[in-house]
Design brief:
single chain; 156 residues; mainly alpha; CHAD domain; 5 helices
């Protein structure tokens, strides 16, 4: 599982400062996974980035009152889109892993059927990977990382 950076928040820290710090840290974590996530042989990278998007989304939603709505809504929408693309890619990964484990417990007679299912899932995995690549391109082209940092600086 993706380990998150521990963020020390003191009880007397203003809410807006906490918002800025948490969003800045979680945004940095998110994009630290982008370089490995399209490697279909490393399914944990997708899992790690997906977990990180959940953490970032939760932070954004918790601290929503601190951010200007006109800037907040598009950023949250784009984080959700990226999370959806990660989920679409991750789902076949999980099912392939489960079927591979199941095949070990089945008789030889059933291996062809399981292999056929896995082959179908590999196609879904490739389609999900292409959509994830497009979502990452969109995030880069729209400067999502920069917009998240700018949002954190606008916390009030």
């Amino acid at each position: 599982m993706a380990k998150s950076v521990r963020i020390a928040l003191e009880a007397d820290r203003p809410y807006a400062e906490a918002a800025a710090l948490v969003v800045r840290v979680r945004a940095g974590e998110l994009f630290s996974h982008a370089g490995r996530v399209l490697d279909m042989s490393d399914i944990e990278a997708v899992h790690d980035m997906r977990v990180t998007t959940r953490r970032l989304r939760a932070a954004l939603e918790i601290f929503e009152p601190c951010f200007p709505p006109k800037r907040f809504k598009p950023v949250l929408r784009d984080v959700k889109r990226l999370a959806d693309a990660l989920g679409e890619r991750r789902d076949p990964d999980v099912r392939i892993e489960q079927l591979t484990a199941l095949a070990k417990d089945l008789g030889v007679r059933d291996h062809d059927g399981v292999r056929t299912l896995i082959d179908t899932l590999r196609i879904e995995q490739a389609v999900g990977n292409a959509r994830l690549a497009a979502a990452l391109d969109d995030a880069r082209d729209s400067n999502l990382a920069g917009r998240l940092l700018a949002l954190s600086e606008q916390a009030r």
